[in-house]
Amino acid sequence: MSPIASHPQHQPPAPRTDPLVLLLLVLVALVILAGTGYLCLVHPLLIAPIGAVGAVAAILVAVFTGVFTSRRC
User: Fold this and answer.
1) What distances in angstroms separate CA 50 from CA 57, 63, 66, 72, one per listed residue?
2) Neighbours of 46 (CB within 10 A)
3) Where are the domains of the chain?
4) Side-chain half-sphere of 36: how many Cα atoms within 13 Å?
C-alpha cells in the first residue's frame, strides 16, 4: 500500500448561506411584491405591463437560482 493511498483526503466544508442574507432577500421580495400590488390597484392600466415584467423576472430568477446553486455544490 502506498503512503498516499493510506491517508484519506479531507474536503473543506461547503459554504453555507447566512440566515440574515436569506431574511433580507425575503424582505426585499415582499416589499417589491407589495409595491407591485399597490401599483396594480392604483393604476389598472399598468396590470398588463407589470405582468409581462413579472413573467420575465420570474424566469430570470429561476435561471440565476439554478446557476447559483449548481456553482455552490
Assistant:
1) 10, 20, 24, 32
2) 13
3) 18-72
4) 16
**Does pTM top 0.85 for this prediction?**
no
pLDDT digits (tens, 9 = 90+) for 4-54: 556 667 777 666 777 888 888 889 989 988 999 999 999 999 999 999 998
Residues 6+ apart with CB under 8 A from 73: 14
Q: How far apart are CA 73 and CA 69, in angstroms?
A: 7
Q: Please give the full DSSP string across 34-60, using - where no structure is assigned.
A: HHHHHHHHH-GGGHHHHHHHHHHHHHH
